[in-house]
Amino acid sequence: MTKKEKYSHFENESGFQGLKVNDGIAQPESVNSESVKRFLNKNRNLLPAGDYVEGILRGDITLLSKAVTLVESSNLKHQEIAQEIIKLCLPHSGKSVRIGITGVPGVGKSTFIEALGSYITQQGGKLAVLAIDPSSERSKGSILGDKTRMEELSGDKNAYIRPSPSAGSLGGVARKTRETIILCEAAGFNHIFIETVGVGQSETAVHSMTDFFLLLMLAGAGDELQGIKRGIMEMADLIAINKADGNNIEKAQLAKIQYKNAIHLFPRKDSGWEPGVLTCSAVRKSGIAEIWNEIEKYRQLTVANGWFDTRRNQQATYWMHETIREQLYRDFYGNQIIKHKIEEFESLVLNNQISSFAAAGKLLEMYAEMKLISEDRKINH
User: Fold this and answer.
1) Is the pLDDT of residue 362 over 60?
2) Residue 282 and residue 111 in contact, taking contact as beta carbons nearer than 8 Å
3) Rounded distance, CA 156 to CA 138, Å?
4) Does the pTM exceed 0.85?
């Protein structure tokens, strides 16, 4: 049967009078062959690692963004190229001040980042704004919205705003952010902002990859000291009370006194720095210069007493161990045989036939044996 016959109508035959039915439109193929070709050739447009690095070093934002996309990709080929790019960029990194910024919801992080970021670029600095948001696959996060709200900074040729990875565990997202820092520093960005979305576990991750930790707070929102965990306050190198304008100025000053009294109760920092409390209005851009002066004082002090480099070295080894843990976790739970065995042992644990600890030990032994067998096969072949 021809395509024409397939779509013709029997109502047009001579037995039917006064009835005319036009041919319909042939249905398109269920699969777009061009899309398939593009999908199969998705690695065709990849450049050698050296080409990305060359572009990054000359400040090419397009190639920097493409390299960051490779870092964030779970594709094995992309990861191979990404790790080579990071290796080549590493000697050109480290020459920045890394600042972690966090705060309670509604504190005005986007407006504050734009105000402080614009101040930095006006002073001749180059700024990259990154984010840690492991929950963004579920909530879509806030950094994409931040980018549209930070109109002034988005259009600044000396600023680069990068939305965070859209999925994965906190460890995975944090590792990719740390690797992105290396690429941004190699591209000449000498100030890096790492924003966290919300207040929670991600603050610890940000603290483990930044030189200075800035906590944004609000005044007049109930009991200020109950609005955030003590651990996060202890990590802070500076507390900035935002929205200190209009009728809120007096409340901000009162909150400033409360926070100053609170941070004096915390143990002294190894850096030798004494955290302070300042007020600001990101909307009016008041108090922004004073906050930046504090960050500069911190940098000068810690560079002089050696803490700056000590902290960076601690962070480097910390992320080495974190990466090992993450890869072992992924490899263990990604193993198909182990997956089935886990289900078996879960049933045994639930039926009180084996203890949780013994089950874990058995599974780890199986995993270790499988790895040894795999290594022996590689050697023998």
Assistant:
1) yes
2) yes
3) 30
4) no
